Amino acid sequence: MATLALVSLCVIIGVIxxxxxxxxxxxxxxxxxASQYNHEDDVMNRFFxxxxxxxxxxxxxxxxxxxxPGRQLHEFLILNNVNIEYDFNMKTKECRKSIPRxxxxxxxxxxxxxxxxxxxxGPGEEVFAQDWSDRVPYSRREMWIGTFSLKHCYPIRExxxxxxxxxxxxxxxxxxxxxxxPNPGDFIPPPECExxxxxxxxxxxxx
Length: 207
Prior knowledge:
Helix content is 9%, strand content 41%. The protein has 1 helix and 12 strands; from the N terminus they run H-E-E-E-E-E-E-E-E-E-E-E-E. It has one helix at residues 2-19, and strands spanning 29-38, 43-52, 57-63, 74-79, 84-89, 95-98, 113-120, 127-133, 144-149, 155-161, 169-179, 197-198. Strand 1 and strand 2 (43-52) form a beta hairpin.
């Protein structure tokens, strides 16, 4: 009986697993805007991002925030393909270079856990979406949750928990997404970076 029960349990688990959706594939080249809220620091930041997973590179342009006018804005050119990151202060024109963090794509990890499926908006304007996370069922809580559109697998929202407390989380919303790279010149370092010295990047963002 015990063996039969074990076999039945395995069959049930197998059936449930087979019914779970597979992660979709996010486009490998995108341009988009993002707004990011750091819950611990109570700070909102806005960006324009160009993303090229084919060549493992991305560029992040900080944008003016009405809540923090006059602050210094940076361009972060992250070239994992050549293992260099440029931190360019767009106000002072100062540039430094550093070793970038390991490449982190915007897509759904292949081992992600499916959480939910729903639509955003109301009748006639809904966008179907899915939630995925890095939660390991019965073993580890989620530290990353990503929401992606179902049709084209565009990133919509991302929540990262920096520690064990929820109030250390960072929430990012993506919008105005465009397929491809509208301006390839965004990946060319500013002229001021040609003589950049090695230092530590001021980038605190998770990507």
